[in-house]
């Protein structure tokens, strides 16, 4: 994305355009442009997207930054992971059949 003359957009320009967009669309909630970034990251992780992929999309230099900032999304993922492992173990035990 660039300005009309081809020069790069400045960060505050994007924020100003966002404010104008919200004024034209009064039904939308009044949130900061940066809140969209946070929502995107949260939805990525909650949907099971690998944290490394989310980190790259957000432009973080290390996945640890993403994990530190968005760790509040991960507790449910721990329970989901435990259920997946349990299911795999149960399936393996069922394939093995009864001892005999």
Structure description:
The protein is mainly alpha-helical. The protein has a domain at 31-96. Helix content is 65%, strand content 0%. It has 5 helices and no strands. It has helices spanning 11-24, 33-46, 51-58, 63-69, 75-96. α3 packs across α4 (63-69). The longest helix is centred in the C-terminal third of the chain and has 22 residues, at 75-96. The radius of gyration is 22 Å and the shape is elongated. The chain starts with 10 loop residues before the first helix and ends with a helix.
Observed structural traits:
100 residues; mainly alpha; elongated
Oligomer: single chain
Number of helices: 5
Order of helices and strands: HHHHH
Query: What percentage of residues falls in helices of 4 or more residues?
Result: 55-70%
Number of strands: 0
Mean pLDDT: 87
Parts with pLDDT < 50 across at least 5 consecutive residues = none
Q: Report the portion of residues in β strands.
A: under 5%
- Structural class call reads mainly alpha
What characterizes the major β-sheet? none
Radius of gyration: 22 Å
Distance between the termini: 68 Å
Coarse shape: elongated
Write the layout of secondary structure elements.
Blueprint: H1 11-24, H2 33-46, H3 51-58, H4 63-69, H5 75-96
Helix pairs in contact: 2-3, 3-4
Short summary of the structure?
This protein has 100 residues and is mainly α. It has a domain at 31-96. The chain has 5 helices and no strands.
């Amino acid at each position: 994305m660039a300005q009309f003359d081809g020069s790069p957009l400045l960060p505050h320009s994007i924020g100003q355009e966002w404010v104008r967009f919200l004024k034209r669309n009064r039904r939308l909630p009044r949130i900061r442009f940066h809140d969209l970034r946070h929502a995107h990251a949260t939805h990525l992780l909650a949907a099971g997207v690998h944290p490394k992929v989310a980190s790259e999309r957000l432009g973080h230099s290390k996945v640890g930054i993403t994990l530190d900032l968005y760790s509040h999304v991960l507790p449910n993922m721990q329970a989901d992971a435990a259920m997946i492992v349990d299911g795999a173990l149960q399936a393996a035990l069922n394939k093995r059949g009864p001892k005999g």
